[in-house]
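Q: For a teaching session next week I want to show students how multiple molecules come together into a single three-dimensional assembly. I've collected the sequence lines for a complex. Could you give me the predicted structure tokens for the whole thing so I can convert them for display?
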Amino acid sequence: MALTEEQLWKEDFSAQQALAEAEDASTAMLKAAEVPRAFMFCCIALISTVLTLINVVPWSVILCLVALAIPLGWWYFRESRKRPKPRYLMTPSAAQAGYMILAIIAMQGSQYWVPDSWVVVVVKGVVIFGVWWFCLSRLRGVVLKDRLKEAYERPI
Amino acid sequence: MSAPSKQPKFDEQMHSSVRLRICAGLAPLRWAEFDHLRDSLEITDAVLGKQLQELAEAGYVTIQRFTKRGRDHVRVFLSKYGRKAYVGHIAALRAVTEDDATRNA
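A: Of course. Below is the structure for the complete assembly, covering every listed component.
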């Protein structure tokens, strides 16, 4: 008699393999719950553009750029409606706070860098974008690991 | 991975690859729709439906069916009982792998 998939699993049971399967399943669902990277790219591009152009272009232009946050918010709302909902983190790790603080320092520090030519404006924009992309990418990774850890260990 | 904070307890319901993956998929979430689970776990509707039914009968998952704006939704989440069982089962699996590692050292 042929064995079913379930019986085969029991025959060849390996705790390590079971743990790996559980981790893969949790990771796949968490990734499905995240908003796409394209959304993160657009957010960071908008933030770095605004931070770069403050005191370079008139405030009306800055306000127009900030208004782009409205369609971005709508995009986020529509994307998050289609996705599974992750649990709230009870114990965020220190690394999460570290990357958040680094991003805020980059934002505050950028105000002291006053560009005197359009080339420097572009360089400043690229630097701010790079720092924020680094921080938020790492933050996503850390949040994913923290959520996985809580899924394994938090029984309530 | 860090040390388990829950008493290890091997769970017979989760001694099935598909059921373990379903619970693992739901563990980091508040809820997921049936379609999300099926697509992420890459299993068929029939297999997922059958295994979810078994888990629901054992009290591990709760299945909510409702209609919103003319569309049928099936929302699934781990119950408190299921979450405790899953955490205990993972702790038991970790204990086994740690024992194996100690024995092989």
